[in-house]
Design brief:
Largest sheet: 2 strands, antiparallel
Shape: globular
Number of domains: 1
CATH class: Mainly Alpha
CATH architecture: Orthogonal Bundle
CATH topology: ABC transporter involved in vitamin B12 uptake, BtuC
Helix content: over 70%
Length: about 350
């Protein structure tokens, strides 16, 4: 039991800032609200924050706010910017939660949906659907294809990284990077050989990650997958905590490690596939956010999962705001900005682990 208790603290890897948990969640929630307000207000047509909240409250119930804005502004808020902001929050929360779950499942703080090739697998599945024009399952075709690609990539990396029943950090990272490169090359080949220049351009921009053109129809599938997946992970917080102590210790306490890990691989692949299907490949969010949250609330997944979802949502909303504001009216693919932030963070984390 001592090893179980010590494992979360060891994974956190740094002295935790002593902040009351309720205060952390409150501040993170307020931060998400402030980021969403800024993202809705800022744009080619700037809007006062008061109008933004007035429009939202009026939509909830007409008695909550007296209309003092034009119909055009209401359309901009409700039909153009709000769906995109909500989808940003869903994608950021989903990637962050998946990153935290993967780091526990493979017992490696460097695990991330992008680094482990999961996002690249989802990208290959989605690109296949886009290039071939498959619509077999209607609106579910793209998410299902992305889920299948994500799951197969995750299983492949897991078995490549294991040797003699053990898995090392170096082997896991190398297996993930190699698999991601191969899958990215396959996706690029599929796009280039599609023979349609419009599909080629749109697919390449999609592979860099972006949320331009978001409508309400695109929000509910990933939102449902992320909410369901997060609820499942919260329900198995204790077994996730046990895994931090090692497979043998978890098995000795009654956990069927292989069955549990396989089940959660499916859950993570479902979440990543649903997210990548609408946002493209966005890297490093699932790597950075869990480490930041552990500094605040520790590694106990019952406390960390809600916090990391809020932090990831706020982070990606602000990143998307920067992506469409820095060189307006042009838009930077959001995956470029997350890579610029996450690449140095990954290198710092590698050096820090090597020094320890």
């Amino acid at each position: 039991m001592t090893r179980v208790a010590e494992a979360p603290a060891a994974l956190a890897g740094a002295r935790r800032i002593r902040v009351p948990y309720t205060l952390v969640l409150t501040l993170l929630g307020l931060g998400v609200g402030a980021a969403a307000t800024a993202a809705i207000a800022v744009g080619s047509v700037p809007l006062p924050p008061g109008d933004v909240w007035g429009i939202l409250l009026h939509r909830l119930h007409p008695a909550l706010a007296e209309p003092t804005w034009t119909a055009v502004r209401e359309t901009i808020v409700l039909d153009v910017r709000l769906p995109r902001v909500l989808l940003c929050g869903v994608v950021g929360a989903g990637l962050s939660v998946c990153g935290m779950a993967l780091q526990a499942l493979v017992r490696n703080p460097l695990a991330d949906p992008m680094l482990l090739g999961v996002s690249s697998g989802a990208t290959v599945g989605a690109v296949l659907v886009l290039v071939l024009g498959v619509t077999l399952l209607g609106m579910f075709t793209l998410p299902v294809a992305a889920f299948c690609g994500a799951f197969l990539a995750l299983v492949l990396v897991y078995f490549l990284a294991r040797s003699g029943g053990r898995m090392t950090t170096v082997r896991l990272v190398l297996s993930g990077v190699a698999t991601a490169e191969v899958l990215s090359a396959i996706a690029g080949y599929l796009v280039i050989t599609s023979g349609d220049p419009h599909k080629t351009e749109s697919a390449f921009r999609w592979m860099l990650g972006g949320l331009a053109g978001t409508t309400w129809d695109l929000v509910w599938i990933p939102a449902s997958a992320v909410l369901l997946g997060t609820a499942v992970l919260l329900g198995v917080s204790r077994p996730l905590n046990l895994l931090l102590a090692g497979e043998e210790a978890a098995a000795s306490l009654g956990l069927n490690v292989h069955r549990f890990r396989a089940t959660l691989f499916v859950v993570v692949a479902l979440m990543v596939g649903a997210v990548v299907a609408v946002s493209g490949a966005i890297g490093f969010v699932g790597l950075m956010m869990p480490h930041m949250v552990r500094l605040l609330v520790g590694a106990d997944h019952r406390r960390a999962l809600p916090a990391v979802a809020l932090l990831g949502a706020g982070f990606l909303i602000l990143t998307d705001l920067a992506a469409r504001s820095l060189i307006a009216p042009e838009e930077i693919p959001i995956g470029i900005l997350t890579a610029l932030a996450g690449g140095p963070f990954f290198l710092w984390l590698m050096r820090r682990r090597a020094a320890r």
